[in-house]
């Protein structure tokens, strides 16, 4: 006997949820794509704009060209990281769809500005504005999922979101390289307008969600909290970025750090006082939220270190071309795409403790495999099997981690909860990368790489221990 088709209302609900998931994936996809696609265009940008003119007198290797390359990347990271909490709060206060739409439109406009930039200053300014608009995308897209799905369906949806947004890191360098070699570097920025327009068209099928604030009253902004959060994150993030480039003793590195850290402390103090705080501290009374964010620190610090050093080793120590070095890390994305949805669903059904304990340990074992690296380096035996293990461990870990952080947070606060987790992951990564030189011993030799691998494995082991001790092994309701 065949199963009867779902009732019209059920079918409509299913279609609506699919649209929500596709919109959430595409909205985050453009932000992640921008982070990966631009890197391959940096030498071409430096050649054309590094001298401050469009004549191409500078090379990618001179001082002006190098500074331009760094700030094309860092201007985006600075505003993205420092405004993540503010953006999450806006999502909760004014509605996910409204904030997501504004972010997408802003991202398209600033991408075009970057593509048309006639000089370095305007390009860097456009990149900073891109970071502002990108900050609106990730928290809102995740909040859209958590406010639409629940139970195992939410875990499956977050798994799909994790897998497909990871594809951006796969196609970004390949697409960017093809565009630079054929149409020119400006199209690296312009091409992201295509998925933005597609997402905006799909969003016309979503209902509006104009909010009246978290408590039903007209929206009230926590202006003091927003300023303190932005300054408190921007100062340390700027110090980490510039300290990595020029050293941590420079006055323009020390000053933002000295201003930013007290502002961050003042932000936590202030959030206990307003009637509608930007980041309700009651979020941290939720065990899974707190434990998940503690695990996030080690996991994303480790991933930032590992994913940065593997391509460097492949190119600088093993002598592979940039294209082949990109292929070395390809298994991570493929394995994640294949398994993230599965493990997101399993974690939502059986509880996250097992997955968030075993996943980081599998990831750590992948990095420990790379201790086999010796001169002369055989990348395909000494590195690639470890990359496959690393990718599998990542699949076991990331979707359950995201689900855990947001699983018990009220839908009205899911935007700021997602923003907190994203801000923690980005700052943890910046801190880890800032200390890469110290960990590696000043130069990325084989011995330096071994030290990095050991630190990565230790960070992942600590995160596994945090998850094992802190999470309760409790099956979530279906």
What does this structure look like?
Helices cover 76% and strands 0% of the residues. With 478 residues, the chain is an all-alpha fold. Helix 1 packs across helix 8 and helix 13 runs parallel beside helix 19. About 4% of the residues have low confidence.
Summarize the structure.
The chain is mostly helical. It has 21 helices and no strands.
Overall SS class: mainly alpha
Content of β-strand: under 5%
Which sequence of SSEs, written as H and E, runs from N to C?
HHHHHHHHHHHHHHHHHHHHH
> What is the rounded distance between the termini?
26 Å
Output the radius of gyration.
Answer: 22 Å
Q: Tell the overall outline.
A: globular
Main β-sheet: number of strands, strand sense, barrel status? none
Number of strands: 0
Helix fraction, binned, reads: over 70%
Topology:
Blueprint lengths: L7 H30 L4 H8 L13 H20 L1 H11 L1 H21 L3 H16 L1 H10 L4 H32 L3 H5 L2 H11 L19 H24 L4 H20 L16 H31 L4 H7 L1 H21 L2 H17 L9 H4 L1 H24 L6 H21 L1 H5 L5 H25 L8
Considering the chains and any ligands shown, give keywords for the structure:
76% helix; mainly alpha; 478 residues; single chain; 21 helices
């Amino acid at each position: 006997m065949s199963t009867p088709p779902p009732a019209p209302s059920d079918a409509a609900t299913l279609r609506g949820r699919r649209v929500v998931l596709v919109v959430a994936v595409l909205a985050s996809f453009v932000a992640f794509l921008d982070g990966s696609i631009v890197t391959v265009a940096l030498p071409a940008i430096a050649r054309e704009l590094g001298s401050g003119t469009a004549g191409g007198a500078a090379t990618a290797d001179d001082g002006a060209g190098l500074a331009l390359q760094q700030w094309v990347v860092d201007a985006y990271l600075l505003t993205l990281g420092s405004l993540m909490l503010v953006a999450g709060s806006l999502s909760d206060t004014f509605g996910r769809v409204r904030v997501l739409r504004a972010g997408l439109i802003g991202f398209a406009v600033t991408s075009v500005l970057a593509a048309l930039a006639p000089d370095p200053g305007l390009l860097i300014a456009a990149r900073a504005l891109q970071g502002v608009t990108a900050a609106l995308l990730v928290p809102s897209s995740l909040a859209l999922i958590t406010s639409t799905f629940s139970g195992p369906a939410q875990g499956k949806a977050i798994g799909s979101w994790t897998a497909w947004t990871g594809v951006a890191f796969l196609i970004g360098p390949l697409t960017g390289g093809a565009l630079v070699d054929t149409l020119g570097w400006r199209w690296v920025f312009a091409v992201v307008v295509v998925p933005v327009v597609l997402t905006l068209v799909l969003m016309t099928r979503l209902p509006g969600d104009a909010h009246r604030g978290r408590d039903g009253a007209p929206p009230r902004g926590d202006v003091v909290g927003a300023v303190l959060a932005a300054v408190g994150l921007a100062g340390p993030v700027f110090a980490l970025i510039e300290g990595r480039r020029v050293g941590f003793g420079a006055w323009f590195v020390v000053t933002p750090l000295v201003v930013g850290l007290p502002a961050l402390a003042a932000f936590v103090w202030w959030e206990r006082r307003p009637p509608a705080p930007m980041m309700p501290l009651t979020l941290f009374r939720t065990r899974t939220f707190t434990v998940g964010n503690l695990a996030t620190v080690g996991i994303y610090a480790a991933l930032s270190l590992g994913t940065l050093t593997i391509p460097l080793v492949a190119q600088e120590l093993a002598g592979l071309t940039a294209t082949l070095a990109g292929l070395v890390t390809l298994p991570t994305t493929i394995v994640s795409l294949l398994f993230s949805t599965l493990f997101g669903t399993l974690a939502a059904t059986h509880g996250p403790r097992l997955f968030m304990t075993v996943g980081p340990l599998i990831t750590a074992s992948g990095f420990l495999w790379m201790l086999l690296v010796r001169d002369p380096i055989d990348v395909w035996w000494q590195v690639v099997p470890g990359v496959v293990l690393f990718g599998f461990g990542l699949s076991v870990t990331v979707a359950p981690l995201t689900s855990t952080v947001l699983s018990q947070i009220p839908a009205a606060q899911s935007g700021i909860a997602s923003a907190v987790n994203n801000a923690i992951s980005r700052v943890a990564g910046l801190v880890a990368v800032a200390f890469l030189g110290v960990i590696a011993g000043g130069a990325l030799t084989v011995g330096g790489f071994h030290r990095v691998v050991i630190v990565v494995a230790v960070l992942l082991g600590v995160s596994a221990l945090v998850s094992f001790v802190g999470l309760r092994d409790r099956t979530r309701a279906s």
